[in-house]
C-alpha cells in the first residue's frame, strides 16, 4: 500500500501544471502566459486551420508547431507547413512583462527571406490565456499593407492557437493546435 501511494505521488508531481503567478508572486497575464508556454518546451503538436477554405495558403497541408527553445527571455516556435520549414515564431520578453512576436522567415539555404522579422509588441500585459500583438513600425515600413495587422495567440490546457486579422479586411488566419497529443518533432527549421 505504501509503495502504491509513493508511486502515485511521484506520478502526480511529474504532471506539468499551468503556472498561476510569476516568480515574484505577481499575477501579470503576460508572465503567466510566458510560464505556461515554457512548459511546452521541446514538444511538437499538430494543428489545423479553423474555418479553412481552399483559398487558404495552408489548406490541405500538415501543420506542426514545435516549441523548440525556451532560453532566458526568448521562446522559438518553428511552424512547419508540409515540407516547408521556413517559418519560426520568435517570442521575446521585453521590459519585464511585455511580449514581442516576430516572424522569422528563411530560405532553404538558411538565408533570410526578403519579408522577415515582422510582428509586434503586446500593447499591455494581456491575460494568461491570450496575448495580442498589433503590427509595429518595423512591420509597417516593411509591409505597408500589414500596418493594420493584429496577431494573437491563445493558450490553455487543451490548445494553442495562432491567429491573424487585418483590420478593415476579410483576411484572417486561424490555426489551432491540439496540446493533448504530442507528435514527432519535425526537422530543424531552415536557418536554425
Q: Any overview of this molecule?
A:
The structure is a single chain. This protein has 192 residues and is an alpha+beta fold. The protein has one domain: Beta Barrel (Lipocalin), CATH 2.40.128.20. It contains three helices and eleven strands. Strands 1, 2, 3, 4, 5, 6, 7, 8, 9, 10 and 11 form an eleven-stranded antiparallel β-sheet that branches. A hairpin with a 3-residue loop joins strand 9 (149-155) and strand 10. It is globular and about 40 Å long. Residues 1-22 have low confidence and may be disordered. Residues 1-19 form the signal peptide.
Summarize the structure.
With 192 residues, the chain is an alpha+beta fold. It is 15% helix and 39% strand.
Blueprint of the fold:
Layout: H1 2-14, H2 29-38, E1 44-49, E2 63-66, E3 69-71, E4 74-81, E5 84-94, E6 98-105, E7 118-121, E8 130-134, H3 137-142, E9 149-155, E10 159-166, E11 172-182
Antiparallel strand pairs: 1-2, 1-11, 2-4, 3-4, 4-5, 5-6, 6-7, 8-9, 9-10, 10-11
Question: What value does the average pLDDT take?
Answer: 87
What would the principal axes of the Cα set say about the shape? globular
CATH class: Mainly Beta
Radius of gyration: 18 Å
Determine the structural class based on helices, strands and strand pairing.
alpha+beta
Q: Which ranges are low-confidence, i.e. pLDDT below 50, for 5 or more consecutive residues?
A: 1-22
Q: Compute the number of structural domains.
A: 1
Biggest β-sheet strands, sense, barrel = 11 strands, antiparallel
Spell out the helices and strands N to C: HHEEEEEEEEHEEE
Amino acid at each position: 500500500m505504501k509503495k502504491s501511494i509513493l508511486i502515485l505521488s511521484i506520478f502526480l508531481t511529474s504532471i506539468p501544471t499551468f503556472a498561476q503567478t510569476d516568480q515574484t508572486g505577481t499575477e501579470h497575464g503576460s508572465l503567466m502566459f510566458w510560464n505556461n508556454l515554457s512548459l511546452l518546451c521541446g514538444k511538437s503538436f499538430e494543428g489545423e486551420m479553423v474555418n479553412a477554405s481552399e483559398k487558404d495558403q495552408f489548406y490541405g497541408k500538415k501543420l506542426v508547431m514545435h516549441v523548440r527553445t525556451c532560453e532566458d527571455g526568448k521562446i522559438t516556435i518553428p511552424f512547419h507547413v508540409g515540407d516547408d520549414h521556413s517559418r519560426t515564431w520568435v517570442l521575446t520578453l521585453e521590459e519585464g512583462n511585455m511580449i514581442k512576436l516576430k516572424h522569422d522567415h528563411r530560405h532553404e539555404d538558411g538565408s533570410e527571406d526578403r519579408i522577415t522579422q515582422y510582428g509586434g509588441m503586446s500593447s499591455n500585459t494581456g491575460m494568461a490565456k491570450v496575448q495580442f500583438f498589433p503590427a509595429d513600425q518595423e512591420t509597417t515600413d516593411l509591409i505597408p499593407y500589414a500596418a493594420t495587422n493584429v496577431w494573437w495567440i491563445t493558450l490553455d490546457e487543451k490548445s494553442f492557437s495562432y491567429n491573424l486579422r487585418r483590420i478593415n479586411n476579410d483576411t484572417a488566419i486561424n490555426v489551432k493546435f491540439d496540446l493533448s497529443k504530442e507528435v514527432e518533432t519535425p526537422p530543424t527549421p531552415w536557418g536554425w
